[in-house]
Specification:
- The complex is a heterodimer of chains A (459) and B (225).
- Helix content of chain A is 77%, strand content 2%.
- With 459 residues, chain A is an all-alpha fold.
- Chain A has 2 domains: 207 residues, no CATH class; 238 residues, no CATH class.
- Chain A has a two-stranded antiparallel sheet with strand order 1-2.
- Chain A is globular and about 70 Å long.
- Chain A starts with a helix and ends in a 9-residue tail after the last helix.
- Chain B is an alpha/beta fold.
- Chain B folds into 2 domains: 149 residues, Rossmann fold (3-Layer(aba) Sandwich), CATH 3.40.50; 64 residues, no CATH class.
- In chain B, 35% of the residues lie in helices and 29% in strands.
- In chain B, the strands form 2 sheets. Chain B has a 6-stranded mixed β-sheet, with helices on both faces. In chain B, strands 2-1-4-5 form a 4-stranded antiparallel β-sheet, covered by helices on one side.
- In chain B, a hairpin with a 2-residue loop joins strand 4 and strand 5.
- In chain B, helix 5 runs parallel beside helix 6.
- The longest helix of chain B is centred in the C-terminal third of the chain and has 18 residues.
- The radius of gyration of chain B is 17 Å and the shape is globular.
- The chains are: A mainly alpha (459), B alpha/beta (225).
- Chains A and B meet through helix 12 and helix 15 of A and helix 1, helix 2, strand 6 and helix 3 of B.
Chain lengths: 459, 225
């Protein structure tokens, strides 16, 4: 019965659960891989003969898609770990967004529980159970997939024992693996609980706390602070041996600052649409962005981080290939690395787009009564479609531009080949807007359903 | 008087459940008509057919010489934007827009200039007694104030017909009386035709005439004193 109260029935509840399961399962695999690679240095396994035989100049193309040399060199190894973690961030945003799919029905169900005497803490516990269970199932499935894949790799034909050595060397071990998975479940539940902050379930229904106050640009301070930290870190160690911890902290501050700037930018974008836009579509989109910039920004944050990572990759790529005296094997080695990074970013972009799609679709479903009545009052479907696309794509542009500029500032001192870097960087905001437009376009069937006048009786 | 709105032998079913079973209704220009009936009698379905929101399975709807039941979606949308004002019980205002912007919306949809649309909206809000609240969002308004804003939005394009589905259903009796006085008063002053659906006899008393629906057919009609 508790389960039925927490999760409820119906297609939407099943979809919510499946999306959370899927997101946490993939995130589990990526995090376990990241931890495994981090453990390599501690175990010293990469110094073993079988590991070393995967020499970048003479060795095979890699274990699957991974060239072991990336794991041997400390700088590259940390890059691999960062890649796994960066791929996990959009997934966690996706899970946070997915955990809010169709929760209105759940919140209303919880309100009836409050009416029956349940405390606020109890109903929040039930809401956590809803997301927590799905996250637990997802992590278990992810762990099983991780172990099965590892076992298959170790059991595969491996005459030199090299592949097995890599697989064993990057296995995180049971205690640490369990710790990572538990932390993931707790993190997902916390994120879901944080997203419930604006909802108060009262015995008389759902009250959404009106966060009318416009977002402030405090994130900008953190962003500037992070960038200054990176600069000072380099200046303090002119030999290039800056403290890894200082640089990591400064980079983290930069990323957090960038993400916390997005609600403010979204609000500004909405204000600009209302002030200078013409026609009802810009008014509807602009006011919606002004009214709830945080939801839109939350969904965009993953995309913004992907743009930042892509900007860094473009600059590093240009820097790497600026040297001309490298042999063919080295070239192949680096190209493979960038190809793998590109695949990771494309994956992350896809996940970020899926998160945007979910947020947009959920917003349309939640507002279907208003939309149906707008259509009934003679609003053209094309006007509403334009409003949705504007709302999704328009705030992406300044956020993506800021992410690109941030990337440039992070690695400003290393830019050597502007002829490649500039077009590459200019393409990033365009690509981000394209992803947003695709996500918005994919949500339009939900708009069509919401404005179907035959559904007016039930809207 | 000439008929502005005419429905002939309207039939509409939802799956196996019949909602309208051959309804005839004629509404003269400038008339205020109340459609009465219990829940499930088919009155909202009739209203939706009259406003071009729903196509009947059979029968005809004529609005000022234009046949609504066979009109394209685009044409019906245009008519609802220009010739028909629609008022629902609740939930029709866009929560993110101010009261003034909500009222200006139909004019903006009709490609009127922003300043002109906002000025017209202010005039209607003042006329309906909610001019002071023009910068507030729907969530900051009382139920009665929200319905006045909804009325202003329905009337701002100066439509020939206003259809209202339980326009006072979510209001207390005092607010309901105020809304009905405004609706009937403005309609009579401007010659706008009104068809409203209600199950409340006090609301129906503001109409010139009542039509009673029962199980999808007109079971009675009369002129109100």
């Amino acid at each position: 019965m508790i389960w039925r109260l927490a999760v409820g029935r119906g297609r939407e509840a099943v979809v919510r659960q499946l999306l959370v399961v899927l997101g946490t399962a993939v995130a589990s695999v990526l995090l376990l891989e990241a931890v495994g690679v981090l453990l390599l240095a501690r175990r010293g396994l990469y110094q073993s003969a079988s590991f070393r035989s995967f020499n970048k100049a003479t060795g095979p193309a890699g274990v699957g898609a991974i060239n072991v040399s990336y794991l041997i060199e400390p700088g590259l190894r940390h890059g691999v770990v960062a890649g796994f973690v960066l791929c996990t961030v959009p997934l966690l945003v996706f899970v946070a967004v997915a955990s809010r799919v169709a929760v209105r029905q759940r919140d209303e169900r919880l309100a009836t529980l409050r009416l029956a005497g349940a405390s606020d803490l109890q109903v929040r516990g039930l809401a956590a159970l809803d997301t927590g269970f799905a996250a637990l199932v997802g992590t278990v499935l992810g762990a099983v997939a991780f172990v099965v894949a590892r076992t298959a790799v170790v059991a595969a034909a491996d005459p030199d024992g090299q592949v097995s050595a890599v697989a064993r060397g990057t296995a995180p071990g049971v205690p640490l693996g369990v710790l990572v998975l538990v932390a993931l479940v707790v993190g997902v539940v916390l994120v879901a609980a944080l997203s419930l902050r604006s909802v108060v379930v009262t015995p008389l229904g759902i009250v959404r706390k009106a966060l009318r106050r416009a977002p402030r640009p405090w994130g900008l301070l953190l962003l500037v602070g992070g960038l200054l930290g990176l600069l000072l870190g380099r200046l303090a160690a002119p030999d290039g041996q800056s403290s890894l911890l200082v640089l990591a902290l400064a980079l983290a501050a930069t990323m957090v600052g960038l993400v916390t700037c997005v609600p403010w930018l979204t609000y500004l974008t909405g204000s600009a649409l209302v002030r200078w836009g013409r026609g009802p579509a810009t008014l509807l989109a602009g006011r919606r962005l002004q009214d709830d910039p945080r939801s839109q920004a939350r969904a965009m944050s993953a995309l913004v981080l992907v743009v930042l990572a892509a900007a860094l990759a473009v600059i590093v790529y240009a820097d790497t290939f600026a040297y001309s005296g490298r042999d063919a094997a080295d070239d192949r080695f680096y190209r493979q690395g960038f190809q793998a990074a590109a695949v990771g970013m494309a994956f992350s972009g896809l996940v970020a787009g899926a998160g945007l799609l979910l947020t947009t679709a959920e917003g349309l479903v939640e507002r279907r009564r208003t939309l149906a009545r707008l259509a009934a009052a003679g609003t053209d479907p094309s006007t509403l479609r334009r409003a949705v696309l504007l709302q999704v794509a328009w705030p992406t542009l300044p956020a993506a531009v800021l992410a690109t500029v941030t990337g440039v500032l992070v690695l400003a001192s290393t830019v050597t080949d502007a002829s490649f870097v500039v077009p590459g960087l200019l393409a990033l905001p365009v690509a981000a807007v394209a992803v947003s437009l695709l996500a918005g376009a994919a949500s339009l069937p939900f708009l069509r359903r919401a404005t179907d006048l035959e559904q007016l009786r039930v809207a | 008087m000439t008929a502005l709105l005419e429905a002939r032998r309207l039939v509409k079913s939802f799956g196996a459940t019949p909602a309208l079973r051959g309804v005839d209704l004629t509404v003269e220009a400038g008339e205020v008509v109340a459609v009465l009936g219990a829940s499930g009698s088919g009155k909202s379905t009739l209203l939706h057919c009259l406003a071009g929101l729903t196509r009947p399975d059979a029968g005809e709807v004529h609005l000022d010489g234009t046949r609504l039941d066979t009109a394209t979606d685009r044409e019906r949308t245009r008519l609802r934007r220009t010739a028909i004002g629609v008022v629902f019980q609740y939930g029709q205002l866009v929560p993110e827009l101010t009261a003034q912007e909500n009222v200006a919306l139909p004019l903006l949809l009709g490609r009127r200039g922003k300043q002109e649309a906002l000025a017209a909206a202010k005039t209607w809000l003042d006329r309906l007694g909610v001019g002071e609240q023009r910068d507030q969002r729907p969530g900051q308004l009382s139920g009665g104030q929200q319905q006045r804003v909804a009325l202003a939005r329905a009337l701002v394009t100066e439509p020939r017909l206003v259809v209202a589905d339980e326009p006072t259903g979510a209001l207390d009796s005092i607010a309901a009386e105020q809304v009905m006085e405004l609706l009937s008063g403005v309609a009579r002053a401007s010659g706008t035709t009104v068809v409203l659906v209600t199950h409340d006899l006090r609301v129906a008393s503001y109409a010139d005439r009542e039509v009673v629906l029962r199980d999808g057919v007109v079971s009675g009609a009369g002129v109100l004193a």
